[in-house]
Amino acid sequence: MGKYVLKRIAISLLTLLAILFILFLMLEYMPGSPFNDEKLTEAQKILLYAKYGLDQPFFIKFFNYVSKMITGDFGVSYTINMNFAVGDMIASRLPITIKLGLQAITLGSLIGLLLGIVAAIKHNTWIDTITVMISTLGVSVPSYVFALGLAYFVGYKLGWFPILYNMSKAFESSVLPTLALSVFTIANVARFTRSEMIDVLGSDYIRLVQSKGVKEWKLILRHALRNALIPIVTVIGPLMVGLLTGSMVVEKIFAIPGIGSLMVNAIQMNDYNVVIAIAFVYSSLYIFTMLIVDILYGIIDPRIRIAKGGS
Amino acid sequence: MKVKKQRVLSIRDLNISFATGSGDVNAIRGVRLDLFKGETLAIVGESGSGKSVTVKAIMGILDSNGTIESGSITFDYEDKGELKSVDLVQMTPKEIRYQIAGKKIAMVFQDPMTSLDPTMNIGKQIMEGMLEHEDLSRDQAKDRAIELLSLVGIDEPLKRLKQYPHQLSGGMRQRVVIAIALACNPDVLICDEPTTALDVTIQAKILELIKDIQKRSNISVIYITHDLGVVAKVADYVAVMYAGKIIEKGNIDEIFYDPRHPYTWGLLSSMPDIDTDSKRLFAISGSPPNLLETVPGDAFAPRNPYALNIDFRLEPPMFDVGGQHRVSSWLCHSNAPKVEMPIQLKRRITKMLKEEKDYV
Question: Which CATH superfamily is domain A86-310 in?
C-alpha cells in the first residue's frame, strides 16, 4: 500500500508539471498583456517586460517559473495587487474557499446518502418519487439560483443569516453559501446512492444475508451501504473539486473573499501569475482528491486493497 | 408398518401470482407438498416452472411484486423443547426473517460467485447469523465458524476466516455458503440449484457433502434443480413441476422407474446417456404456456403427443397410482386408453433396473 501511494504521488507530481506547461503555453498565445495601459509608452512597456522577465524566450521563462515555484515563490501580481506576492494572496483566500467547499460536501454527502438510502429502501413508493424529483431539480437548477433564493428569503426576508460575507462572523456568513453549494451535491449523491443501493439490494448476497435472518438495519449498514459506497466514493471526489471550482459565482453573490472571485478578476485583468497559480492550485486539489478517493477505495473494497498490496 | 414419519413442512394449495406490466402471472397454481424429517425432497422442472418461487415463499423472500393468493405452508419445529407449528403464509416476511430464516430454515443459493458479500471476510459472514440468533460470545462464534469450515471440508479454516470471497474458488465459496446455512443448526436446508454454477467434479463433491451433513444431523433437505442426475444422486422423494403445478410426485424409484406423466417421460428421455442410439438428443417440443392467461385443462397438453381430448378442456386431478406416487394426468384415469411410455425410455429403465440388481 505504501509503495502504491508513493508511486501515485510521483505520477501526480509529473501530471502537475505537465499541466503547468500547458497553462504556460496557453497564456503565451493569449491576446493582450498585463500592461495594456494607454498611458504607457512602448519604451516603458519594454522596460516593464524586462523587469518581470517577460521578454525572455518561452522555455527559459517556464524554467525560471518552475524553479522558483519549487521554493514556494509563485511570483508577483502584475495588475490586481501590484508587486504583491501571489502566494500570499492565495494563502489568505484559499482557506475560506476550502472551508466552504468542505462544509458543502459534508452536508451534501450526508443528506444525499440519507435520501438515497431511504429512496432505495422505499423503492417505488411516494418517498422514492419525491426523492427523485428533488434530485432532478437539484441537478438541473444551477447553484446561483439557489444562492439568490436563499439570500432573498432566508437572508433578507427572514434575516436569519447575513447576506454578505462578514469576516468577524465567519461561520454565520458561511451558512447560506454552504446551503446553496450543497444542493448540487445532495442531488447528485442522492441520485447515485439510490440507484447503487437498488442494485445492491437486488443482488444475490443480500438475498443470502436476508436468508440468514439478519435484522434489516444491519443488512442496510453492514452489507448494502458498504457495497454501494464503492462507486459513490468515486463521484464524491470529483464533486468536491467541482464545488471548489464551481463556487466562483456563489462567492461573487455572497461577496466571499475566496480564490474563486480572485480567479475571475485575474483572468479579466491578464494577471498571468495569479491565473497560473490558481489554476495550479485547482489542479493540485483535483489530483489530491482523486488520490484520496483511490486510497479510500482500497479501504472500502478488500478486492482492491489486496491486489494493490501484492503489486 | 414403519414408524410414522415426522412432518416438518407441509404446503397446501399454494397459489402465488406476480403483478407485471402486462397483467398478473399465476406462477404457482395449487401446489401441495410434504417434507419429512431427515428426508430429501427434490423439486424438478424447467426454468419458469415455479420451483424457485415455491421455496422463496417458504423463506419469505418473494420479490416485491409477488403475492400469495391462498394456501398454507405449515412448518413444525421445536423451540426450546417446545413443539411449535406456524403457518409461514400468515407471517410477514419480516417475522419469517427474524424468527425462522437462518435459524430454522436455511438456504443455499445457486451461484456461489455472487452470493457472498464481497466486502466482508468469510469469518464474519459465517458468524453473523449465529450472533444474530444465538446467545454466543464472539469467541464462541469464532470457534463454531472454524468448526463449520472444517465440517464443509475447507482446510486451514483459521486462515480462511480472514479471507475475502474473491480469494476463494467457486467450489470453496459454495462450501462457505453451506457453512453459513448450517451455522444455526437449521431443521430444513433449501438448496436452490446448488451445483449448477460449479464444474462437474466439484458438483459431485458438494452433493456428497450435503448428503454427509444430512446423515449426521438428520436435517431435511429440499433440492431445487433441473438436473435429473442430481436428483438421482440425492433425493428420497421427487416432485415434478410444470407451469406452476406439481404434475407428478413420488419416491425416487417411482419417478425414475415407473414414470406416468408424459412430461416426466419427456424429461427422463431428454437426459443424455452413454448408449443412446439416436444421433440427436431428445427434446420436448414446444414451449411452456404463458401463465398470464388462465390455462384450460392440462397445461402440458399442447406439447403432449399423448394428450387426450379431455386434457384440453378439464384440469386433471391428482390420481393415486399406488404407494406415494401421485400423477396429474388423465392418462391415469381408469377409463383412459392404455398408453405406454416411449420405447426408448422403457429400454433405458429396464437397463437401469438390471444394472441396479447387478450392482447390489
Answer: MetI-like (1.10.3720.10)
